[in-house]
Design a protein that fits this description.
CATH superfamily: Beta Polymerase, domain 2
Strand content: 15-25%
Number of strands: 6
Number of helices: 5
Shape: globular
Number of domains: 1
Distance between the termini: 20 Å
CATH architecture: 2-Layer Sandwich
Strand order of the largest sheet: 3-4-5-2-1-6
Radius of gyration: 13 Å
Helix content: 25-40%
CATH topology: Beta Polymerase, domain 2
């Protein structure tokens, strides 16, 4: 599946379940493992799990590949591996503690994009 379509599907699925602070980070130039990291916040373990399930179901319904999901049992941090995109959904305290945005700070500013719209076109060009 095209990276832009996959990104749009994931972000839309997160927005549908009211994820907060969705951020898309282009990692294509700093790791060969995946092209994007999407980070989002859910207020409770129930919402974190619902957000992960929403992403999973939307991508699967569109014919995309789900490599795996981890963390559903605790619901504090759920990772949804879509191959080219890794989606991290966390409760606020966990997101603050691990601060994945800082981990990926080697990405130039123009490669980091707040998800103000489902398709962050600039993130593809960085």
């Amino acid at each position: 599946m095209d990276i832009k379509k996959l990104q749009k599907l994931a972000v839309t699925a997160l927005e549908d379940v009211k994820a907060k602070d969705i951020e898309i980070i282009n990692t294509a130039k700093i790791t060969p493992l995946f092209d994007r990291v999407i980070i989002a916040t859910g207020d409770s373990s129930r919402q974190v799990n619902a957000l992960a399930r929403s992403v999973h179901d939307a991508v699967k319904e569109a014919g995309g590949q789900i490599v795996g999901m981890e963390g559903e049992t605790a619901g504090e941090w759920v990772l949804v591996d879509l191959g080219d995109i890794v989606v991290h959904i966390m409760q606020p305290a966990v997101r603050l503690y691990y601060n994945l945005e800082e981990l990926w700070q080697t990405v130039p500013k123009r490669g980091r994009k707040k998800a103000s719209s489902p398709v962050a076109d600039d993130a593809d060009d960085a």
